[in-house]
């Protein structure tokens, strides 16, 4: 059925290109005369925070519809969970941290691959509050002098937890001194404010959310960004099932382009994107969502980056894999770039 819909869409495009009206053919149109839309399911990387607003912008502004898709957006619960749901066929596309994706695929062969990049720099981090154990930009503060373990609250299998060994190796942190404590994602900021842990696994853009949750003491967030120590790390990637990549590459490229168009708009006007997000997710805090998008912009378009939005560099992927092997995060030979990204489908300049 998926192939039939894709074929119909291709016929419609060819008809328009030759000046023919596809709308006169009921096999290509709905009952109201409009072109039929292909149903597509999409998972955010993690909940419906401001950092995920770009997908809702693409939906609201009709970018998905213009590309021929009727998209259903569902909140994701972290990279590994998103990968498994997409691999299992319960979703067509999803978002996940690229490094966590590589680590997972090196250990478990799931039928998913990267078809575009959201952030050109990793946003993974450990976040604490001032006055606590963790000091801003000081990885060594993760190791307590009294020998006790530093407690980091996080969702099991999250990007921050899966990627932590690589960061720790580069930052000179003894991983045995740090304990990740399973905690529900929506409660992380509140648990940190209540001093239930020394820090939380969080993206850099989560700082406004963390500070907003500390309603009594109004403490500033302190951040340990993984990208400070591991420079080649990408951020979130757009992932798709292998069968879509193989059998329907045109669909994949159209979906990716529509999603990235929503990203461009969200970064150009974060406040407007936050309003759109609130329309679809009523409990959205517009101020926090706006700040998240503002903080995310330099990770999507870093200073000095001259590549195309969504692009992926094979040699950079090779360097990350080499680092993962060097620091014993994955086994040598367990993956190569072609196993984790389809460069034929990623955006090109």
From TrEMBL:
Pfam families tied to this protein: NMT1
Transmembrane segments: none
InterPro entries the record matches: NMT1/THI5, SsuA/THI5
Signal peptide limits: 1-22
Limits of the SsuA/THI5-like domain: 55-273
Alphabetical keyword list: Iron, Metal-binding, Pyridoxal phosphate, Signal, Thiamine biosynthesis, Transferase
Pathway(s) annotated for this protein in UniProt: Cofactor biosynthesis; thiamine diphosphate biosynthesis
Reactions the enzyme catalyzes: N(6)-(pyridoxal phosphate)-L-lysyl-[4-amino-5-hydroxymethyl-2-methylpyrimidine phosphate synthase] + L-histidyl-[4-amino-5-hydroxymethyl-2-methylpyrimidine phosphate synthase] + 2 Fe(3+) + 4 H2O = L-lysyl-[4-amino-5-hydroxymethyl-2-methylpyrimidine phosphate synthase] + (2S)-2-amino-5-hydroxy-4-oxopentanoyl-[4-amino-5-hydroxymethyl-2-methylpyrimidine phosphate synthase] + 4-amino-2-methyl-5-(phosphooxymethyl)pyrimidine + 3-oxopropanoate + 2 Fe(2+) + 2 H(+)
Family in the record: Belongs to the NMT1/THI5 family.
Function: Responsible for the formation of the pyrimidine heterocycle in the thiamine biosynthesis pathway. Catalyzes the formation of hydroxymethylpyrimidine phosphate (HMP-P) from histidine and pyridoxal phosphate (PLP). The protein uses PLP and the active site histidine to form HMP-P, generating an inactive enzyme. The enzyme can only undergo a single turnover, which suggests it is a suicide enzyme.
Subunit structure of this chain's protein: Homodimer.
UniProt name for this protein: Thiamine pyrimidine synthase
Organism lineage string: Bacteria, Bacillati, Actinomycetota, Actinomycetes, Propionibacteriales
């Amino acid at each position: 059925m998926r192939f039939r819909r894709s074929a119909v869409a291709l016929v419609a495009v060819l008809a328009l290109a030759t000046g023919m009206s596809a709308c006169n053919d009921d096999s290509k149109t709905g009952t109201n005369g409009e072109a039929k839309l292909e149903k597509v399911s999409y998972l955010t990387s993690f909940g419906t925070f401001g950092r995920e607003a770009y997908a809702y912008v693409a939906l609201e502004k009709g970018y998905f519809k213009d590309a021929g898709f009727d998209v259903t957006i569902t909140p994701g619960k972290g990279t590994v969970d998103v990968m498994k749901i997409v691999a299992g066929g319960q979703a067509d596309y999803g978002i996940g941290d690229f490094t966590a994706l590589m680590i997972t695929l090196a250990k478990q062969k799931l039928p998913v691959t990267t078809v575009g990049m959201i952030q050109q720099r990793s946003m993974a981090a450990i976040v604490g509050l001032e006055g606590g154990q963790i000091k801003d930009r000081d990885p060594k503060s993760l190791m307590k002098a009294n020998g006790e373990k530093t407690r980091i609250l996080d969702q099991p299998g999250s990007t921050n937890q899966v990627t932590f060994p690589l960061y720790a190796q580069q930052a000179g942190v003894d991983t045995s001194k740090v304990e990740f404590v399973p905690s529900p994602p929506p409660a992380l900021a509140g648990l940190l404010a209540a001093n239930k842990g020394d820090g939380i696994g969080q993206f850099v853009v989560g700082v406004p959310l963390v500070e907003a949750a500390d309603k009594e003491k109004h403490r500033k967030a302190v951040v340990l960004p993984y990208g400070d120590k591991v420079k080649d790390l990408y951020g979130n990637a757009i992932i798709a099932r292998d069968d879509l990549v193989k059998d329907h590459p045109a669909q994949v490229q159209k979906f990716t382009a529509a999603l990235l168009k929503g990203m461009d708009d969200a970064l150009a006007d974060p406040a407007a994107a936050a309003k759109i997000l609130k329309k679809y997710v009523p409990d959205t805090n517009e101020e926090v969502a706006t700040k998240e998008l503002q903080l995310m912009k330099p990770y999507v378009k870093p200073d000095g980056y001259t590549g195309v939005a969504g692009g992926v560099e094979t040699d950079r992927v090779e360097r990350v894999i080499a680092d993962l092997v060097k620091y014993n995060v994955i086994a040598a030979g367990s993956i190569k770039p072609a196993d984790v990204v389809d460069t034929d489908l990623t955006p090109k300049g």
